[in-house]
Amino acid sequence: MGAAIALREPDGADDLFLHESVGTPPALGLAFLSRLAPCDVASLTVTDFEILLLQLRAARLGPRMHLAFACPHCREMAEIVFSVSDYIADIRPKPVPGVMADAERPGWFSLGGATFRLPTAGYLAAVADRAEPGRELAALCLDETARQPRHRARVERAMACMAPEVSRSVAGTCPACGAAVRAGFAVARVVMAEQKRAAAAVHDEVDLIARAYHWPQAEILALPRARRHAYAERIRRGGAQPGGAQPGGAQPGSARAA
């Protein structure tokens, strides 16, 4: 785990896919990242998967996260703000004495007679809509011996060192009552909710640009999101020149976005 992965910049087709997709946050995150990454995202550990989601979030929506929640002490709305890069910097895998790679089963490890594998993005997405996702995930990642009480705690501690949790609570202070508070941060749920909200503008922006410039829908959707936003904002400010050049510099066509 921990390998650097360069993501392709999402375009309008990616936003359209995300806006029109349904599913659990892990499943949506897996599907969205699979469009952008040059690797099998499903095989990444949950740690790497959630770090990749945070890196995508920072690149598209800014480097600082804002978690809003009701203070458990005074019930006023509070907000915890933190840097994505600082949050990720605290997450470091550690070697565990006694853990050995299983020579017969790639991806599996042994510890004191018990064998296990690290949870992946694919496993997480597969169990996210189950009634007991934690139990289902354990069944996928722990052998019968590792699930026994005398082994399980030690195995789970080893797994937490090898693939640290990214989704965890974040500490802050309530601005209304001054109490110390902690907010749960479920990475896939928060990040994918933000990404879906950002993608919701795609229909309006495509329609706006198509009406102003008469560019074909496919060419508008091929624009990076930031450039599509820039064109839409220019049109809203009255700076559009109907009949102007297409995104690639060719002369405009007559097709419009639906």
Short description:
By secondary structure, the protein is α+β, with helices and mostly antiparallel strands. The protein has 11 helices and 7 strands. The protein folds into 3 domains: about 110 residues, no CATH class; about 60 residues, no CATH class; about 60 residues, no CATH class.
Q: Give the overall silhouette.
A: globular
Instruction: Output the number of helix runs.
Output: 11
Task: Indicate the radius of gyration in whole angstroms.
Answer: 23 Å
Q: What structural class is derived from the secondary structure elements?
A: alpha+beta
Largest sheet, in brief, is: 3 strands, antiparallel
Low-confidence runs of at least 5 consecutive residues: 249-258
Strand order of the largest sheet: 3-4-5
* Rounded average pLDDT: 91
Distance linking N and C termini: 43 Å
The total domain count is 3
Secondary-structure element string: HHHEEHEEEHHHEEHHHH
How much helical structure, as a percent, in the residues?
Answer: 40-55%
Beta-strand portion reads: 5-15%
Secondary structure tally: strands:
7
Characterise the protein shown here:
The chain folds into 3 domains: 12-91 and 166-199, no CATH class; 100-162, no CATH class; 201-258, no CATH class. It contains 11 helices and 7 strands. It has helices spanning 12-20, 25-36, 46-61, 84-89, 121-127, 133-141, 149-162, 187-199, 202-213, 217-221, 225-236, and strands spanning 64-70, 77-83, 100-101, 108-111, 114-117, 168-173, 180-185. The strands form 3 sheets. A 3-stranded antiparallel β-sheet has the order 3-4-5. Helix 2 runs antiparallel to helix 5 (121-127), helix 3 (46-61) runs parallel beside helix 8 (187-199) and helix 9 (202-213) packs across helix 11. Residues 249-258 have low confidence and may be disordered.
